[in-house]
Amino acid sequence: MYFQRLKDLREDMELNQTDIANILFTSQTVYSRYERGVRTIPVEHLLILADFYNVSVDYILGRTNCKSVQK
Predict the structure, then answer these.
(1) How far apart are CA 19 and CA 1, in angstroms?
(2) What DSSP assignment string belongs to 44-66?
(3) Within its chain, how far is the Cα of 9 from the centroid?
(4) Residue-level pLDDT at 1
(5) pLDDT of residue 10
(6) Is 52 exposed, middle or buried (0-12, 13-18, 19+ CB in 10 A)?
(7) 19 in helix, strand or coil?
(8) N- or C-end of the chain: fewer Cβ atoms within 10 A?
(9) What is the Cα–Cα distance from 26 to 59, expressed in whole angstroms?
């Protein structure tokens, strides 16, 4: 699965892959593989990114177009 939304969210904040990789305590290469869908993103990383971008995991996964987190 290709996660275009990961790339879009990152670019919307004018961050590069290394910036996000540092947040996840991983390498830029591994993060790049997440964005390209070459490597499965761990649930822990999805949760960190959803919190960081203030969006739902469902939004990142393309299950909804609603960015807001339901509380």
Answers:
(1) 22
(2) HHHHHHHHHHT--HHHHHTS-S-
(3) 7
(4) 61
(5) 97
(6) middle
(7) helix
(8) C
(9) 22
For the question of whether the overall pTM of this predicted structure is more than 0.85, the answer is yes
Q: Does the CA dihedral 59-36-19-43 come out positive or negative?
A: positive
Q: Which residues contact 41 (CB under 8 A, 6 or more apart)?
A: 3, 6, 34
**Residue 48 near residue 24 (C-beta atoms within 8 A):** yes
pLDDT along the chain (71 residues), means of 10: 88 98 98 95 97 95 85 58
The CATH T-level fold of domain 4-61 is 434 Repressor (Amino-terminal Domain) (1.10.260)
Q: Tokens representing 37?
A: 């869908």
23 near 53, Cβ under 8 Å?
no
